[in-house]
Amino acid sequence: MNKKVYFAAFLLIVITAALITSRIFYGGQTIRPEFKRSLWRVNIIMDLMGTGSRAKVRFTLPKETERQTIYNEHFNNEGMVFYIRDRENTKNRIGFWRSELLNGSKTIKYTFSVLAKSADYQIPAGLVRPKKPLEFYPAEFQPWLLPSIEIQSQDPRINQYLSKTISKNDAVGIAVQKIFTFVTTKVKYQSEKGSKDATSTLDQLVADCGGQARLFVALSRAAGIPSRIVGGVILENGVKKITHVWAENYIGNQWIPFDVVNRHYAYMPANYLELYRGDYILIKHVGLSSFNYFFSMGRETIPPVDQPWSLYSLPLHFQNTIYALLLLPIGTLVVGFARVIIGIPTFGTFAPILLALAFREISVFVGVSCVTGVVFLGWLMRTLLDYFKILIIPRLSIVITTVVIVVIAIMMTGFHSGKREMLYVSLFPIVIITWIIERFAVIQVEDGTKAAFQGALGTTVVAIGAYYLMEFDFVKKYLFAFPEILLTIIAIQLLLGRYTGIRLTELFRFNELKKVYGKKQS
Amino acid sequence: MITAPGLLGMNRRNIDYILSNNSRKFYPLVDNKLLTKQLLEQHGIPCPMLYFEIKHNFELKLLRELKHMKEFVVKPARGSAGRGILPITEQIGKKWKTAKGELLSKEDVEYHVSNILAGLYSLGGADDHAFLEYYVRSHPIFRPISYQGVPDIRLIIYRGIPIISMLRLPTKESGGRANLHQGAVGAGLDMRDGITIGGVHRDRLIDNHPDTDTKIAGIRIPFWNDILEIGARLYDIFKLGYIGADFVIDQLLGPLILELNARPGLSIQLANREGLRPCLDIIDKMLGPKPVENELSPEKRLRIFREMLAEVNS
What we know:
- Chain A: Keywords: Membrane, Transmembrane, Transmembrane helix.
- Chain A: InterPro entries: 7TM_transglut, Papain-like_cys_pep_sf, Transglut_i_TM, Transglutaminase-like.
- Chain A: It holds the Pfam family 7TM_transglut.
- The complex is a heterodimer of chains A (522) and B (314).
- Chain A has helices at 2-27, 35-38, 133-136, 156-165, 172-186, 198-204, 209-222, 316-342, 350-362, 364-386, 392-416, 427-447, 449-471, 473-481, 485-497, 504-509, 511-521, and strands at 39-61, 68-76, 81-86, 93-116, 119-120, 188-189, 206-207, 227-234, 238-240, 244-251, 254-259, 264-265, 267-268, 272-277, 283-286, 290-299.
- Chain A has 522 residues and is of the alpha+beta class.
- In chain A, β6 (188-189), α6 and β7 (206-207) form a beta-alpha-beta unit.
- In chain A, α4 (156-165) crosses α7.
- Helix content of chain B is 27%, strand content 24%.
- In chain B, the strands form 2 sheets. In chain B, strands 11-10-9-8-7-12-13 form a 7-stranded antiparallel sheet. A 6-stranded antiparallel sheet of chain B has the order 1-6-2-3-4-5, sandwiched between helices.
- In chain B, a hairpin with a 3-residue loop joins β12 and β13 (254-261).
- At the A-B interface, α12, α16 and α17 of A face α1 and α4 of B.
């Protein structure tokens, strides 16, 4: 029997390894060859502080383009409502976080991996500038040809400079070249607060990336070339807050990037991450008393996974469900180990795992206090109900109902005493903790109060262990990227299922026998 | 792997002995006490007589028959670890006195029975049946070393052969029940003659009974050879390779089987001050591969039992 089990376990581990290897080396053909060079993991951390009013934050999320691939996205929304909207014209992908009533602080974390390639663009020579660009280009190009608030492309000064810089019959390539040279040579770089529009940049000839890009866009539009601002971040190791802005001109059926500050002419380095198109602001927020954000970036450590078969390719709201599901087997590992190797008594296999999942939502401290409170309440109720002599099922129902009354009472008290965060507890942890009381009561009837308290303690301890293993970043990342690891978990459980060694707690239980053995030998 | 010399742990018991020797389909025969009783009676093995059975709540009215009964025990059919057992020793007017000395009305007994029916005492809380049976009056030899309740003799039978045994003595703490984890005292038995060696209480070795303070060692179990003989016949009836049989010795009727257990506990090792594995290994060596135990007669099994004793003690 043992040989068969070992073989099955071995087979499962081999299958896991084979699946992982094949997916790394043969699966994601589009990603793999370059992942060492320009694969980044980007964290965007936003600290929100609210004073009890409606709050809303919007952030433009990166999207796939020809030169950047976004994957392994993960959102930690801290209970705020989150949704994504795609903008019709710009194709920008905007994430919204909302809270009807935000009191206290929240930290939103948005993490994704990006594979960015460098790109060189050829500007076709001899492309004639249309006399009437608004009619020449399709209607959706209108916003990129007409002036906007900070890009005053019809301002007389812009036109005046333009006519000084380029001649009327210059082809598109030459005109862009001249505008690029004009901005790069005439405008000095200086980091500034706030945004500067195109005309002020022209007047002062000093600006940061925003002002310079706006001037470039304004001149380009004035020259009849569709042009727009592009915003993003320059990827580099470490933490930063500074974003970057550059320009894109529509030349010969494609958008070609120009960065006047860093002097990239029709070229994008591999470490440019594009976040939005158009002259927008990356982050907007309403109803917050304070807001802070930063980017934390590093070279990616997880190899990219075969995209179509990656869990990351699922819609985001499903990802969290799958995420929680994946953690269940991790929890069973802890429970299996605790029960088979150590011998800690728990309320069944599932209770500690569910409790650990509840801890994820309400933190270990709050969770343990709740379990303690509820168990104590249940014990009190049971002692009281014993007096009435009531059948077991109604008795348990009464205990559960009492727990519900107490939970609601606590929430109401919290609400009226200004502790509104008490309302944020979702249904799941409440149900789990209430359910613990049923297990407690049943064990108490079956094996006595001492065994029930031991079980409650064991369950809590194992749940804390499972929680910390579940929260272990390494486990989370790899399990989500390679769910085939679950097969290895089955393999471990198979081996655990044939473990015939003494449980650690049994050593204590049979401790007295040692004395006897000692005597026999002497 | 953590091991201790000779000791059988929970993991090994489950994998190597229970899972490998006890086929799941035979479990109900021992988990349901009524089925056990029926089978034992069919094979002429003595057990406490069944008075009547209550399957549904509407049958509670059968309990009016109680007024004719002076002593009886109420039991759940699928209770475990001695839970839900209500021994009535005496009728006083319209009330009944329990072994613990409480006075119960008919309504109290009815409440107890309906709790049994609702599954309060059954494994996993499933609905259950209740039954009333003969009240065993223990053999007088045990009186000095037991507190209320009826002491029983747990005999573990591996592949049809008795291997280890202990006398279980109720205490005040165990509430008259004979289960070690509820606080009863276990006293190991010398398998050759059924004489008690020391005791164990709450995983501590003891010499005297905690309530009566009488010496536990040196008591000879009456009808010891009958117990071994009955034990050797059980495999043919129940087909379970690793079971614990619980015997009581009635002062009038002699040894009776109270119940069987397909997952006997491990504390018997503490009570006997030795691990189980040497015995188990000797049996495996002597019997060879399964399923030879099917062909052995009870007499042959007892012969193997004696050979095993000789080998263990050599």
